[in-house]
Amino acid sequence: MQVKRRVYITNVELSVRSGYNGSLMMFIASLIIVSLGIFLTIKGVLKPKIRRLAGIDALDEMIGRATELGRPVHFTVGLGGIGNPQVIAGLSIARYVARRCAELGVRFLFTFSVPSVQPIATDLIKQAYVEAGKADAFSPDNVIWLSDRQFAFATGVMGLVLREKAAANMLLGYFAAESLIFAEAGYRAGAMQIAGTTNSYQIPFFIVTCDYTLISIELIYAGAYMSQEPRQIGTILGQDYLILIGLVLMGVGAVLYGLGIQTLTAWLAL
Amino acid sequence: MSQIVKRHIPHMVLVAVAFFMAGDTLLLEKPYNDLASSGTAVVSIIGSFAVLLSVTMLSRLHVRRVQRKTKVIESSVLLICMWVTLIWGFFRFAFQGVSPTKEFAVQQVFNAIVSPGDSTIYSILAFFIAAAAYRAFRARSVEATLLLLAGSIVMLGYAPVGEMISGYIPSLTKWIMDVPNTAGNRVIILSGIIGIVALYVRIILGYERGWMGRGD
User: Residue B207 sits in which domain range?
Assistant: First the structure.
């Protein structure tokens, strides 16, 4: 009896076999568009106006409140490792918050789950204290690894926030089911809260429990938004162009598909 | 010199590796893909060194805490106990061939402490969801009212009582989940992916240096 072998073809294989590597084309096109956005902004050809992000604008208010109350600021990047883009985005914000906390003499507590974050985060926060001219105030004890197990980490954060009565609770990074535990702990401690993630399943939890929420892309471009450098702003412009192109392609594709013309859909799938 | 070692060399390595790994995902050349697979193994090895570095930092921190006799030393003592357990397990495995996961004490710690603890914290979520839902479902604005309505319909749609109240509720639930919910979800996912592409461009171009630690 002959056994039929099932052959699995990946998107890339399909793409290459068709003689047109769509994935590669899109990768190159994305790089060109974002780079073009940066180039045009640096050269001053385009002067993009960025809409205000209420959450990021409120960071100073949250740190100020912590100063007045004499209570610490808690910041966590959640479960992600250093290779996670959400953690990288969170670390950019952490650096700013740590510097402001150092300037105002507020205790800054930083928690994380994946051990590989520790050397980077310690170095980054130490540098923020140096920039604020308060190198002596930095304590490695405040960069806290709790556990790499999801719920053990959640318990640790919950205990820390409630014990220390954090005045501000910042949850910016990669979160899963423990997100609500963090946010509820902050709510019970009476903390002002800001949260941000690209994980669409956790965003509703953050919206109902936190004062400010950075939804998906807002977390990613928070670092660029805070820097206000033209080259960083250029990347926001580039990604907005990408979104615009994506929306146009989706709209046209949907209309053509509805009319029975599947060429664009097939072309984009390659 | 310090700038070259701390900033430029890591950045150049990053750019080379980033394009190399992107090529692996986008191209179908067997020798290239094989080489990239070994590259992934190198990443795992470097990752292990990062963990080793973290463990060293963590241990130094706790040893210093014990030396200084700071107020909270319970966690430090616990960490030192864990180290003793790890070394004991290593020797048992190396000289007596006993796998650490087969050790009765390790199994007991997992089955009697870790596993029930995880389940307890996970179950607490149900109460937190109820508390959060209570706060969210107060019709104080148009948006909150819409949320309240949609939430109530979806909850009823998934419960048997919903169909008993009206035959339309399950189909309305399906429509809410399939159309507005899916549309919103896709916007978040798509914008997140494009944002990540832009973040990677920023990293490759050296504008985003958070991953480098101090980096300058």
Answer: 137-216
Contacts of A137 (CB under 8 A, 6+ apart): A102, A105, A129
Which of B66, B194, B200 should one mutate to test binding to chain A, selecting the residue with the greatest count of A CBs within 10 A? B194
Domain span at A139: 54-225
In B, minimum Cα distance to A112 occurs at B54
Name the domain count of chain A. Answer: 2
Contact present, A198 and A90 (Cβ < 8 Å) = no
* Closest in B25, B53, B194 to A246, CB measured: B194
Question: What pLDDT is stored for residue A3 in this prediction?
Answer: 53
For the cut 90, the answer to whether the pLDDT of residue A163 exceeds it is: yes
Helix (H) or strand (E) holding A45, with range, is none
A63 with A133, same domain: the answer is yes
**ipTM score assigned to the predicted complex:** 0.80
CATH of the domain at A185: 3.40.50
Distance (Å, rounded) from C-alpha B9 to C-alpha A64?
39
- Condensed to tens digits (0 to 9), the pLDDT of residues B176-210 reads 999 999 998 888 888 888 888 888 887 887 777 76
The number of domains in chain B is: 3
Q: Is B77 within the bounds of a domain?
A: no
Chain A: closest CA distance from residue B86 (Å): 16
> Where do the H-state alpha helices sit in chain B?
2-3, 9-26, 30-68, 74-96, 104-109, 115-136, 142-158, 160-165, 168-176, 182-204
Give the whole-angstrom CA distance, residue A265 versus residue A242.
18
The verdict on residue A134 lying in a domain is yes
Name the region of B215 (left: φ>0; alpha: ψ -120 to 50; beta: rest): left
- Residues A19, A128, single domain; the answer is no
* B97 lies in some domain: no
The side-by-side arrangement of strands in the sheet containing A192-197 is A143-145, A108-112, A73-78, A168-174, A192-197, A212-215
> What digits encode the pLDDT tens for the residues B86-120?
888 888 888 888 887 777 878 888 899 889 999 99
A4: in domain: no
